[in-house]
Amino acid sequence: DGGITQSPKYLFRKEGQNVTLSCEQNLNHDAMYWYRQDPGQGLRLIYYSQIVNDFQKGDIAEGYSVSREKKESFPLTVTSAQKNPTAFYLCASSFGFGGNTGELFFGEGSRLTVL
Amino acid sequence: QKEVEQNSGPLSVPEGAIASLNCTYSDRGSQSFFWYRQYSGKSPELIMSIYSNGDKEDGRFTAQLNKASQYVSLLIRDSQPSDSATYLCAVNTGNQFYFGTGTSLTVIP
Prior knowledge:
Largest sheet of chain B: 6 strands, mixed
Low-confidence stretches of chain A: none
Distance between the termini of chain A: 36 Å
Number of strands of chain A: 11
Radius of gyration of chain A: 13 Å
Number of helices of chain B: 0
Structural class of chain B: mainly beta
Low-confidence stretches of chain B: none
Helix content of chain A: under 10%
Mean pLDDT of chain A: 92
Largest sheet of chain A: 7 strands, mixed
Oligomer: heterodimer
Mean pLDDT of chain B: 94
Strand content of chain B: over 45%
Distance between the termini of chain B: 37 Å
Shape of chain B: globular
Radius of gyration of chain B: 13 Å
């Protein structure tokens, strides 16, 4: 079955640690995205990538980093510079970008808690 | 002004009734419009997409788009308790997807 796989589903981090969230898709989608969801604030875009080896900052990129070495994979690293990392992180993908985006599909999410 | 605005609710309807969810957006150049359902603790699930003015029906769901009024709505007919969730409106401006904060719907048996 085609879809987006995120791992881990739950992650606990001590302050000062970097953590990496995995996102893999087998939908053959060109564009991939990372969103953060906090209660009452909706989804906010962290980073997005239209093609391999290219990615752009979203609205809240500070304290995060990404890579896009393969079309299928778009991992997100939450660095120690992110001051309030406790949140629900959602990876998504779409067929295209811009005027030919199509629909956005989400993975199951990763819930990060800082201890 | 937010890009996408929704009434946060909560909205409560009895089982079998019609639930009406509304969304307005600010960018007149927006090209595509989506409704997602999100159960508590889960990721958003796409339930409807609409690209042109008018109505689009899929089973018990009808999406309505009025670009002149910058308004998108979702009607859920014959509401079921399993429809109880938060509904997110999303708009693609051609550059980015923007999401509303969601409307919480409770269907009372």
